[in-house]
Specification:
The structure is a homotetramer.
Chain A (H helix, E strand, L loop, with lengths): L2 E7 L6 H10 L7 E7 L4 E7 L2 H4 L2 H5 L5 E7 L14 E5 L2 E8 L5 H10 L9 H15 L3 H9 L7 E6 L2 E6 L8 E4 L3 E5 L2 H6 L3 E5 L4 E6 L2 E6 L9 E2 L1 H6 L5 E2 L2 E2 H15 L6 E4 L5 H11 L7 E3 L15 H8 E3 L1 H4 L3 E6 L6 H12 L4 E6 L14 H5 L8 H8 L3 E4 L2 H8 L4 E2 L1 H4 L18
Parallel strand pairs in A: 14-23, 17-20, 20-21, 21-22
Antiparallel strand pairs in A: 1-4, 1-10, 2-3, 2-4, 5-6, 6-7, 7-8, 8-12, 9-10, 9-11, 12-13, 15-16, 18-19
Helix pairs in contact in A: 4-5, 5-6, 9-10, 9-16
GO molecular function, one term (chains A, B, C, D): amidophosphoribosyltransferase activity
Pathway (chains A, B, C, D): Purine metabolism; IMP biosynthesis via de novo pathway; N(1)-(5-phospho-D-ribosyl)glycinamide from 5-phospho-alpha-D-ribose 1-diphosphate: step 1/2
Family (chains A, B, C, D): In the C-terminal section; belongs to the purine/pyrimidine phosphoribosyltransferase family.
Amino acid sequence: MCGIFGIYSHEKSNIVKKVYYGLYALQHRGQEGAGIAVGNGKEIGFYKGLGLVPEVFSNKELQNLYGHIGVGHVRYSTTGRNTIENCQPFVVNSSFGKIAITHNGDIVNSKELKHELEKKGHIFVSTTDSEVIAQLLVRELLKNDDIITAVTNVTQKLNGAYSLLIIYDDTLIAIRDPNGFKPLCIGKDDGAYYFSSESCALDIVDVEFERDVAPGEMVVVDKNGLNTYKLPNAKEKASSCMFEYVYFARPDSVIDGVSVYEVRRNIGKILAREAPEEVDIVSPVPDSGIIFSQGYTEEAEVPYYEALIKNRYIGRTFILPTQEERDLAVRLKLNPVKYLLKDKKVMLIDDSIVRGTTSGKIMKMAKKAGAKKVHLRIGSPRIISPCFYGIDMATTKELIANSKTDEEIAEMIGADSVAYLSIEGLVEAIGRDDLCLACLNEEYPTDVSCKFECGNCKK
Amino acid sequence: MCGIFGIYSHEKSNIVKKVYYGLYALQHRGQEGAGIAVGNGKEIGFYKGLGLVPEVFSNKELQNLYGHIGVGHVRYSTTGRNTIENCQPFVVNSSFGKIAITHNGDIVNSKELKHELEKKGHIFVSTTDSEVIAQLLVRELLKNDDIITAVTNVTQKLNGAYSLLIIYDDTLIAIRDPNGFKPLCIGKDDGAYYFSSESCALDIVDVEFERDVAPGEMVVVDKNGLNTYKLPNAKEKASSCMFEYVYFARPDSVIDGVSVYEVRRNIGKILAREAPEEVDIVSPVPDSGIIFSQGYTEEAEVPYYEALIKNRYIGRTFILPTQEERDLAVRLKLNPVKYLLKDKKVMLIDDSIVRGTTSGKIMKMAKKAGAKKVHLRIGSPRIISPCFYGIDMATTKELIANSKTDEEIAEMIGADSVAYLSIEGLVEAIGRDDLCLACLNEEYPTDVSCKFECGNCKK
Amino acid sequence: MCGIFGIYSHEKSNIVKKVYYGLYALQHRGQEGAGIAVGNGKEIGFYKGLGLVPEVFSNKELQNLYGHIGVGHVRYSTTGRNTIENCQPFVVNSSFGKIAITHNGDIVNSKELKHELEKKGHIFVSTTDSEVIAQLLVRELLKNDDIITAVTNVTQKLNGAYSLLIIYDDTLIAIRDPNGFKPLCIGKDDGAYYFSSESCALDIVDVEFERDVAPGEMVVVDKNGLNTYKLPNAKEKASSCMFEYVYFARPDSVIDGVSVYEVRRNIGKILAREAPEEVDIVSPVPDSGIIFSQGYTEEAEVPYYEALIKNRYIGRTFILPTQEERDLAVRLKLNPVKYLLKDKKVMLIDDSIVRGTTSGKIMKMAKKAGAKKVHLRIGSPRIISPCFYGIDMATTKELIANSKTDEEIAEMIGADSVAYLSIEGLVEAIGRDDLCLACLNEEYPTDVSCKFECGNCKK
Amino acid sequence: MCGIFGIYSHEKSNIVKKVYYGLYALQHRGQEGAGIAVGNGKEIGFYKGLGLVPEVFSNKELQNLYGHIGVGHVRYSTTGRNTIENCQPFVVNSSFGKIAITHNGDIVNSKELKHELEKKGHIFVSTTDSEVIAQLLVRELLKNDDIITAVTNVTQKLNGAYSLLIIYDDTLIAIRDPNGFKPLCIGKDDGAYYFSSESCALDIVDVEFERDVAPGEMVVVDKNGLNTYKLPNAKEKASSCMFEYVYFARPDSVIDGVSVYEVRRNIGKILAREAPEEVDIVSPVPDSGIIFSQGYTEEAEVPYYEALIKNRYIGRTFILPTQEERDLAVRLKLNPVKYLLKDKKVMLIDDSIVRGTTSGKIMKMAKKAGAKKVHLRIGSPRIISPCFYGIDMATTKELIANSKTDEEIAEMIGADSVAYLSIEGLVEAIGRDDLCLACLNEEYPTDVSCKFECGNCKK
């Protein structure tokens, strides 16, 4: 995941607070680190740290930053340890002055590119793709000091997913990879252009959504305004990540013209059609299952209840319970409403089943609360193959759907039935035919073969 | 508000962690302070502090506490400054050893009692009712060292709302005032008795709900088991606070046999009947309006959407925005889903309108997002009179309903219509006739006349 | 120990910052807690917490306090656990309004007084003598509302050491017990009177030292100026604590007309005469031995070196070393200068030997650094009996001098000789005959017999 | 300044705790940041942060590091902002694996080297010399993969001061620049070799001092033991920084065979001879003047007193006083002992006069305390020229000695006389003829001309 946000103010007003608010609105895309770099056309100042946006930035840190061009990043760690070195923006000093880069996505061939650069004497202080891109960019600039040409040349070497925001001199550059894996959109008000991973952040800083950056498009904003360029390898047809609609993005965002909220509601409706079951009530596993369940209730005409109550005060300072207290810990986060479940046939809707442990505890709690039957529906198809474009492997590898049938899972977790959304259902729910479904059907939009035999390679 | 939780373990096991988890489940009843006192039959250890339960207690503080009798408290400041002195449990040393008291509610005549005690030479370090009760209790014990008699005598002097948990020697005493203003219930497992402001906390520590403490009942647990006593002034008919159902309690709690969740759903249905309006969608103002809206959707057969998205990461470390950034701050917390609102007639449901400022901003955002009509329904009747039994005056005093008609409010906040729940509707939704409705109809269940002319009296 | 500081400003200026600086200058008298209470003639505000003065108070806390009468306290825990309840000032509300009390010393009969009060129905939230005094004071005020009479009557019940500062109405009262155990002095500038445990704090707030409060004197400052009263039981001859000169007070303080610096230098000279030894250099064990050593060098005409270097950065956040790292930890705090010690006969001077463990490690380090001989002199006589007037028992009980001869100690710690200052030498060094020497010669200036057989009594 | 510490353990034991303690002992050399890198022959782990060693490292951070080769650094910011990027060790990934570098000193031509590297496409994330060295090293390794040759080649490009510790593979390399500007010494115990900026840190980890690294020496430790190499450009005669003896180093260190303590004592003696004055007492301005004053007292036969008492509790959390409180703030840190100063002719000894403000306040306080005469002696010669080898320019630029005579300074600060140590006196006190005295006499041991006209260049 990760989220990026950028601004170029033609009025030369200080945009640091707006970048901060933009990142706050994108906090759901990454909670492990945050950073902001701000340029004034000459110098670039920056600050970054581990944690949530308001943990990293107090007024003090914001006051030290000043400029009319800004980029920010919230970090979700896919590759590399969660250290401050791996936080973004990645800011470097070079022969061409300071450059700041933020990146959302995963470069499939970053390891190859890194090896080649290392063989030429380059060194790396982080494990981020941004650093690889920075090194490539400076090398291209040495060959050709036109930034447009240089950035274009860099993109021709990259294989994978990248939505990028780059500050260089008095220029802000936004790029979406040729497949358009990750979202990136443009906002505008009287004085400035805005770029954001999701449109919800534009809403929040009260800026009009202008349009999505097209797959394979490079947008360049400088004092003369906005110009757009098409990357030579831009694809005819995009391969946008379906997971943005299902899970990652905020429901108030619209990605490539499709409302995330509507997709999730559609999924709920399709689930009701694809795997119907006679039940008394439908209830989400909060928070992910909420909108799916609203669609389900509409289609199946079964009353909607929130029969599992989430404790809103559970935070990261929670004292880790002893082994014996584990069940208690799940219940502390999620308590079944006995009154609603007693003697009822219940449909629960969640977004995934990871190892099955938590799902199993939820089933057990629901049954103990008196539910006669508990059925589980999953608002995403089965994930069967790794993602090389930015989703955490550790998580998908453990997905129970890789190795078990619905019936086996149901038995294992103690549900009366389990069903996943079909791939066709997902495509129908989104209403687009230009999606990346590689983790569902193993059809990768780019070459993902690995040239290394290292074993601990990400592939 | 405030929440209290207590345990007496007959197996003499250390109950401090369970009190901690119980308080965690009651966190919604008070976020300003927390404390735990633990007794072993002789000594009482305690720790308290300002902030949320996990902010006050780390493993270190919990490890310093050990015993088989425990009481805990989460603080919501009604009277007095938010200082550590005003946090509970209130633990004192006396001629009769250590005593720990936790209190939920407000004693109407505490000021008179305090003055009388002061005239007899007593001094006070806090502004809590608990300290008044502690002083009265020790005086009664001097007259009659039977704790049951002494506590009974104390209660005969108290006018107002009090759910109390008291540790004395090897005894845990639980009392609910004669009117039963505030909830208090009993749980039980093989080895221990539990007391909690709400049944949800019993669920969470995985203990069976036994029954509610009756209005005017005193329950005494010691090594011989549980005994119950009826206070001499116990009322025939209770006057339970209706706000517990409407707003305070967690929806997974059942109070005096009535499910909080069901009450809120009923309110939504009744709102749909009492003030119908032709709309395309109904949406809650999160989080308070969610269950009301689910009832509304069922009754009015209008689709349910969550058209205002709450940012789950907004916490207390949020940087205060400048005056110009205030609108932005509301939007950061609550963003309208344009896709859902555009060209729609919308019904929003909230639990109250305080000053009208936030409601006004929400109406404005909804209209800007494209809503054709925005109607507002409030899931509680109009509050017209102060509460002397434990609800913050500062808040009710500012309630806009005191002085304006529905139409005036609608105009002020920019809504197309506004309607509150009727008192009859509320009573129907709860299904009880033994409620305190004083803040709605000025019929106070106890004498609330004030003997002082001080001006800064709470009355 | 503990330190107290107070101000009454006739110009009605806000004195909170000055109390803060005064406490900062008294920080050496107590590092476990700090508090300030400020009155405006009507209300008293206060704040207190655990830790050093600058840890407890930031600008935020100071800004919440405002008034022209103030008292402050730094806490060193003699009796009771180190909890916030035991921090001072102790502020109470009573029939006579708010009262704030700070206390330095130990009341010998506080336990008896507390029991008597408890029998009358009083309760206690702390284990401080200040709370006992507060309760007694309010009872006396009920009998006789003249504060002078009431305070006088209270003092007649107290046995032990007490330097007190009390805010009552628009009055600041300073009292030094009849024996004058603990120091207390008065400062004055154009607009205000100041009271401080030590004169150094007057220097630091740039106020002229006026005089010491006399033993058995009560000084009362109100809008009419300063008045003085003699307690009925004021002693003819004081019994001032000799430890203030030897160890507690800052060297820049003058107590009862005698310079602390000069006393310590005298001690060094007398040590040189009482237990001479042929050595090449004299060196302090820092920091306590520094001024003793300067006196020694002058008398013995032996060069002065600081041959043990203290690491100024060792603070309380130090990571506790494992058992194997203990020697390393001592060396981290105190490193011998090999260059100075090699092949030398060395005289080290310290202020005490507690368990002998640290002294033993120092001797070992000095020998390992090449010292031919290492002699140790102690700048205080042997302590053989507990103090009931305010010095920590835990420490004195473990003092090695209780049970071993100089020769035995020398052998145990690996020194070539050990000698303590004689009692006569101490008296000569101070130059006063009105000292409390009870811990040295068991002659207690007040009755210290205990009426309780409890075992865990402080006596 | 800055301090570095390194270990290679042949027993393969985990050395991270020892590096931590070593850094603790070098804390006086830098308080702005700290870091440790630990290698196991393959991987290098590291952690660094802003602040004091115990602020940066808790047990948690130390437990995450494990290996038998370690280097650590305490940071004092000479060049560049105080950010985490500028903390050391500087750890990079390269074609040759991970490399960790720590550096004490200042590379005069780092700007030129950086520009050359940037022109070849290298980028920089920090402003440290360590990063320049890292980039040069990797380029050399590409040409010649023998690490000894590569490091040697790098040093031939460096002009300036550098004591370096480098981890590469299973090798620890220690280098002292050809002039030996900055100290570096070797320790040894049965299982390991140690390297430290100062010998005091070897004492503290209880390791025998072996010898100093010679100017222009490269020491390489690997599994086969220790080997030494002479850099081609090693100078015949060193130019060691005289300030290490006068101010920077701890007195318990011995640098290049000369005791820091003895040098400071000699300086005091020479001051007494060079600028004698009839006084009653001599007193240091603590802490810097203490050892100078001890030498002075011995030579001048004037009694030694510490007439200015330092508050040991003043830390970094100190609340900044308002303008009116500035005098108070100086007195809070440093209080004159009136008893000692009254009617005395006093000699004060300090290590420098920066802007004269603080000195002026000290003079004023001493006079107000009653001193008849106050003379000031400075234990260092006048600094007239900037240092390019690692001392903060900002400080020296403001040194009052640049522009005023002794008499002018005395008048300005209100002293009865002022005198600095002579350069000859300094050389005599140290007893070495191979010193860098450039800041005193403008004779720079290396070319310090600047090739840039940038203006904001460090030269």
